[in-house]
């Protein structure tokens, strides 16, 4: 966005590009509340500052707009000449002048130039928070005879008793420990019983000597005795005896 000094130089170029303009000073003096002589001197200072490239000073922007309004031209504005001196195109130069004139007329006063736009307030601007005032702490006055001194607190009061830790109860406290089993009963002596591979001994006086083959009823052969293993090998048919 062009600065105010750049706008002053641009308006001065538009006003004087066809030579010295013909200005009607009385309405300008009335608008500025100045005498005609004071208004003429202000114009002279403005013209000298712009031609020397120096700041025009306060009120120059307003004076230029009044001069443009109350000046007369024999010819229309030559935008090509103005654009060449500004280093831009004729269309851009013409649009710039139109925007400036529209903003000036929008103010509603023909005798005052448009106000320079101020910086718009942004959302990030935060309102200053008011500071809180601290109330002055007033100490109570004590009589001379009633002076009281605070006794320093004893070390015992400052000490904080640390909480005692409780003994942790074991989780398996209800487990009962079984006592060792008493001694097993002593087996009775088995010498009274006679071990036998086949039948139980009846306590007779004769030892078992195996199975015997008595033969047929009519046969008068001697009985043959077999051991337990020989009895199976001999192939004796048990059905003959049982």
TrEMBL record:
Compositionally biased spans, kind Polar residues: 192-204
Top-rank taxon, per record: Eukaryota
Record field: compositional bias (Acidic residues): 214-225
Entries under InterPro entries matching the protein: Myb_DNA-bind_8
Residue ranges annotated for the Myb-like DNA-binding domain, each copy included: 5-51, 60-105
Residue stretches spanning the membrane: none
Pfam families: Myb_DNA-bind_8 (PF22980)
Region (Disordered): 90-242
Protein's name in the database: Myb-like DNA-binding domain-containing protein
